[in-house]
Amino acid sequence: MPSSSDPDLGRVGPAELVEIFREQAVPLLRGGVDCFIAETAQDLLELRSQIFGARKAMEEVGRRVPVIAQITLDPSGRMLLGTEPLSAAVLISACGADVMGLNCSTGPREMVDPLRALAEHAPLPLSCQPNAGIPENREGVAVYPLQPGELAEYLARFVRDFRLSVVGGCCGTTPVHLKQVVEAIRGTGAAHKPPRRVPMLSSGLKPAALHQEPRPLIIGERVNSQGSKKMKELLLANDITGILGVAREQVEGGAHALDVCVALTERADEQETMTRVVRVLSGQIEAPLCIDSTEPEVIAAALEWLPGIGIVNSVHLERGWEKIDKIFPLLKQYGACTVAMAIDEKGMALTRDRKLEVARRIYERALKDGLQPWQLLFDVLTFTLATGDEQYKNSAVETIEGIGLVKEKLPGALTVLGVSNVSFGLSRQTRPILNSVFLTHCLKAGLDAAIINPRDILPWNEIPADARALAEDLVLARRDDALTRLIAHFEAKGPAKAAVEEEQHFDTPEARLHHMIVDRQQKGLIEAIDECLKTRSAVGVINDVLLGAMKEVGDRFGAGELILPFVLQSAEVMKKAVAYLEQFMEKNDSYSRGSVVLATVFGDVHDIGKNLVKTILSNNGYTVHDLGKQVPVDRIVNSAVEKKADAIGLSALLVSTSRQMPLVVQEMDRRGLKLPILIGGAAINRKYGWRTAYVDGTDRLYEGGVYYCRDAFEGLDTMNTLQDEQERSKLHDKLRREAHLHRSMVIAGAERASGQQLAAVTDVAPRSVSPPPKVSPPFWGSRIVPPEDLALRDIFDCLDLIELYKLQWGVKVKSREMYQKLIADEFAGKRHELQEECIRNGWLTPKVIYGYFPCSAKGNDLTVLDAETRKPTWTFKFPRKIEEPRKCLADYFSEDDVVAFQAVTVGDRATQMCAQWEAAGEFTKSYFLHGLAVETAEALAEYWHRRVRAEMGLPPEQGKRYSAGYPAWPDLADQAGVWAILHPERIGITLTEAHQMVPEQSTSAVIVWHPEASYYSVRTLTGP
Ligand code: B12
Questions:
Q1: pLDDT above 90 covers what percent of the chain?
Q2: How many angstroms does the Cα of residue 652 sit away from the middle of ligand 1?
Q3: Ligand 1 atom 19 nearest Cα
Q4: Cα 974 to averaged position of ligand 1 atoms, centre (Å)
Q5: What confidence score (pLDDT) does residue 606 get?
């Protein structure tokens, strides 16, 4: 396990492992393997070595096969060394695997939360091979408890909900398990596409976004032997624990990443030291690393041992392309980013144009070499303003402008700056002021990342106005005497700190307490609170003072006036204040009024609000099971069940994490649970609550109800109301009314839509098309078409050849000419041969059932009546598109109309043949027949649709047919309606529980003859 810094566990290095895996992969490739699975990975470096080994072997043999990389997680959802699955996803997608997944170690139950997270974030197709549960020791025998049906049910759900492309079984699964899995997922169709790759960094433990919002990405500068005396001493003393302490302090202080430099003039072992420090830090510190060295060999070694995606510091053109020639291939190999300095053969770029010129050269070369623009963080250089040198007078302005130019002219690239260089040489008092003013202007210009020590920065508002103006004069080169004036100011004034901390006077104790939160002061906090308590209650202090202060912190952070470390410090003061106030709150703990499972959702670390809710509820007689922060969906739902809770409380403060809330609602609904869910947090509002109250993509309210609470006290009121049966039902009715009204307004365009899938509901929407023409059907009811009316040769004439060649048979070439030549020379012949073979051998046996039925449309609903009794057989509730013209399938029908349905199949012989051939290793034959069979089912649907048009006397192109599960009609569950009306089981097509058709090569559709019928998609929106 190379990622482990334990000498016994991590004896073999990545390079050696790559060679071992390459050696194994070469004969396997030569022997004809179709795919490599690197599985049961416990260690990221080992996994990466397997992928690299496989890739090397493929280059050597000249044959490319897919690589599936599967990690294994313990029941807590982490890899053995503590890696989170999303951190693994960042590394795996960067190093060229084709599919990523989970296998072994646990059963599928424990994989639900990790898979949900991977489905949302991992930019790769997914796979999953669980064990048949976690083994139990039954009288000395290990027994895997999960039955085949249970495994199949889980995996079918994962395929549907978590876009799995590959499924299978691991320890304890048997052929019987897998048979049922295959049956359960048959016909589920292609998995959804993975999400786009977002630029990410990662450590051996956690991922981190490269683009921070609000900017900047803070790169802590203290783990640096060149800039920190303490670090130098620790390195000389080989004090790795001390180094870890420095690193931890930086992260706790708000650093998103850490710059690591270990070069010492006193020692010649930079490479060994760097790898040792990198191994220890990446296994124990959450922040990704920035490898800072002038030596390419040191960088190469550090990247080799880094079980994550880091940043290289740095490349430049000082000696032409020499360094870049060495570093760019490493970036490509490891997916790392780099700081790129604006230095070339002529020296350090001073003017904005020169900065852009150097950056552009590096940028163009990077793109040519196949790097992504975001792998480059341009440092357009900072010069000290302390020399008074005429040449550098404008240098800060040029840097600020240079940042803007790079952002504008080099799309996708980022910018970074070592901010404190600007004040190098000035007094200790002056530096934080100048650094802070300079940083503020750089951020305004678009700076993405800053290498800083948060202690060297002051929030804009905390810099006394006179000092700020003097510093701005110098940074913006507004006066020739700016430097002298700034120095003189501080010489006269004494230490800057004192200037900042000048005794401030406040009119009221509340104003003083507010100030203490905003300005992060703990000294005198308790006294200030005691003062406030003289005139108001503890709850009053929280509501009237503390919450407002935190809001101000947030607003200033959002406006870019504060950087993250300051917010952290304010949060600490706030937590202390709330903890102190708790003793003064009235308690009502004689009996429990009910129990609540409370959590901050997955991906979110904000817990002050949630803790406050806990305090208020528990002080008012509720038993609160606090699950903490970053809690995944399944853990929340499982705990609610285990604790037999009366309600769930969820807190989310980020827009991105608030999306976890509807997931909890879906999961509760899926399990048939009906507990009320209370939601709160700064990122959401009442409207979001109303939207979340609906089960995703439907018009159905979640039965337990979802209640938005503005604050902890509304949470308490809501809990109290929910305890009383009658009040509870009134509250639920209110929610139903408000949520419905909101939804109607969104659909009617009166409110901007966002949030969930906002399809469907009301009949308030106007019809988007003209009234349908009158038609009369050739017969009423359904018919099975006799086989003699279904000649395969005629059906083949309806084949969509482009779909067949390109999509099914994968014929993809660059030019049209090449495509046509390839078809003419090879594939057209192959198709004819295979078609004839199908006819000869009966591999495709077309069957059709169709019929005409009376129907009535109202709003979004289409009610289909029995042809004889005229009683409703089924009502389809079609979704309505949100955008204009707000189309809905029901609009194509009138209140008294006719509708046709058809279901077609080419039988299951083709599927059987394919399975038979695959078992015999004849994959190519199976592949081609499978593709032809799928397309023939489509061709049959088209063939019969043409017949329906002819029977109705309609022109050849009039009308369309729509299938459930497709963009205009996404709900596959509506297949149940088609089956109730047409009974396609009479021609051998049945539905699985997931409403998929068996045999696979079948289609069903509603036929619409309205002349304005067109294809469209009912959009799914995300975000609160
Ligand atoms: C403190 C803080 C932090 C601290 C959190 C410390 C901690 N342990 O909680 C730290 C510094 C760690 C932090 C980190 C980040 N933060 Co922050 N943070 C804040 C800040 C300033 C205050 C939050 C707070 O504590 N408020 C006080 C509490 C009491 O209020 P509350 O949580 O809203 O709770 C009340 C009600 O909402 C309600 N309530 C809340 N939950 C629930 C639940 C139930 C069941 C009920 C009934 C009621 C209820 O009751 C509570 C009190 O009555 C907010 C700004 C803001 N306006 O909220 C930004 C803010 C939330 N953060 C923000 C951001 C961007 C981040 C970072 C991404 C920054 C970064 N680039 O790294 C990271 C995110 C890390 C992560 N993955 O979660 C943004 C979010 C933007 C967005 N729309 O998504 C905000 C809005 C700041 C801003 N204006 O940009 N942050």
A1: 74
A2: 8
A3: 554
A4: 41
A5: 93
Cα–Cα distance measured from residue 260 to residue 262, given in angstroms and rounded to the nearest whole number: 7
Q: How many CB atoms lie within 10 A of CB 743?
A: 24
Q: Give nearest CA residue, ligand 1 atom 45.
A: 649
Ligand 1 midpoint to CA 704 (Å): 27
- Phi/psi zone of residue 411: left (φ > 0), alpha (ψ -120 to 50 degrees), beta? beta
Give me the count of residues in the chain: 1024
Alpha-carbon torsion, ordered 747, 749, 750, 755, to 10 deg: 60
Q: State if residue 206 touches ligand 1 by the CB under 6 angstroms criterion.
A: no
d(CA 844, CA 639): 51
Residue with CA at minimum distance from ligand 1 atom 61: 653
Reference 21, options 54, 47, 58, 61; nearest CA is 54
Beta bridge partners of 348: 343
Q: How many angstroms does the Cα of residue 631 sit away from the middle of ligand 1?
A: 16
Q: How far is CA 737 from CA 673, 694, 760, in A?
A: 22, 12, 16
Query: 571: Cβ below 6 Å to ligand 1?
Result: yes
- Position 753 scores a pLDDT of 43
The amino acid sitting at 515 is H
The CA–CA distances, whole Å, from 69 to 34, 161, 196, 753 equal 15, 21, 19, 39
Q: Give kind and range of the element (H or E) at residue 1005.
A: strand 1002-1008
Distances (CA, A) of 662 to 121, 630, 659: 17, 16, 6
Phi, psi for residue 97 in degrees, rounded to 5: -75, 155
Q: Is the CB of 608 under 6 A from ligand 1?
A: yes
Query: Residue for token digits 């000395």?
Result: 140
Specify the DSSP class assigned to residue 779. Answer: S
Substitution candidate for ligand 1 out of 566, 606, 688, 717 with most atoms within 8 A of CB: 606
**523: alpha, beta or left, given left = phi > 0 and alpha = psi -120 to 50?**
beta
Q: CB–CB of 202/209 below 8 Å?
A: no
Which helix (H) or strand (E) is 209 found in, with range? strand 207-209
Q: 885-935: per-residue pLDDT in tens?
A: 778 899 999 999 999 999 999 999 998 998 888 777 777 788 889 999 999
326 token code pair: 């060495």
Residue the block writes with tokens 């994959």: 923
CB 431 within 8 A of CB 423: yes
Strand 706-708 and strand 141-143: the pairing is: unpaired
pTM of the predicted protein model: 0.72
Residue 543 Cβ contacting ligand 1 at under 6 Å: no
User: 3-class secondary structure for 282-310?
Assistant: HHHCCCCEEEECCCHHHHHHHHHCCCCEC
Which residue carries 């991590």 as its tokens? 10
What distance in Å separates the CA atoms of residue 384 and residue 388, rounded to the nearest whole number?
9
- pLDDT given for residue 494 in this prediction: 59
User: E-assigned strands of 674-727?
Assistant: 677-680, 706-708
Q: Is there an atom of ligand 1 within 6 Å of 601 CB?
A: no
* DSSP strand pairing (847-858 vs 861-865): antiparallel
Residue carrying the six token digits 């099971």: 625
Q: How many CA atoms lie within 13 A of 540 on its CB side?
A: 10
